[in-house]
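Note to self: keep these together.
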Amino acid sequence: MSRLRLRRLAAASLAATALFAVSACSSFGEESPGAGAGGDETMKIGVLQFVQHPALDAATEGFKDALDEAGVQVEYDDQNAQGEVPNTNTIATTFASDGLDLVFTVATPAAQAATQAITDVPVLFTAVTDAEAAGLVDSNDAPGGNVTGTSDLNPVADQLALLAEIAPDAKTVGVVYSSGEVNSEVQVDLAKEAAEELGITIKEATVSNSAEVQQATQSLGDVDAIYVPTDNTVVSGIAALIQVAEQKQIPVVSGDSGPVDGGAIATIGIDYTKLGHQTGEMAAKILQDGADPAEMAVETSNDVELIINPAAAERMGVELPDSVTERADTVVE
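Structure:
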């Protein structure tokens, strides 16, 4: 068993915007500034991460590892928006004029900002639930522009089933999520569908920033359990949610492994290091082989694992059933 784990603002002129729009029509497979990268050539990559938390940090690490393994020499400009959408717009606008070879974005708000600001170099994303719904690509199968990447669409139905297995008497499940994150809205809709099949009612509470997580959790009232989607704003404030859950003795199941490390009971989730690595492999194809992002389908990961935190279960007054503990891939201690 394994163990878990702004820079200046540049305003683009109308003429420059028009130029970007025209250049976006060209084929990156033929004209990508980094095509054929190799040898002693150093690529400049801007990294725009929406917020710092374990899953997103792991994705960034995996991305860089993949490029290193592919022999691509890279100079990184690492920027973190600290969970603030205005910051993503500022960073993306700066990146648009920095002469970068590629931009790597982590989480939906970061990807949306880069997609709007940058049209003349490849933009890759990861930790995005539904790129098409987020307006990043024409379609997941045929992106059609300079943007593509990897999706972290998690097995929501399986996670709700896991919650029902851990708390079989649960009839009402609370979900706290950010009203500004499209990926979270997608997951809540999937959770409602799964809950209906299980005879469970979903009660929602929304936040606009991580400081509101505790109050939103308390506003759920007497729910029987809590489900935390892969919501970047909520996950960055997960300690406040866990505190309320422990006080009220409410079991928590999450959409990814980070909250389990932080005190949630369990998840069936993807490995974000591997997902980031997968995105890095896509970047290497663009930089080394001149691959065209417009023709590179959005990729997903089917590599999931069951992660449990028995100590968290005990603090929430839950006894994990043998059916869960015996098939766990990872136990957090």
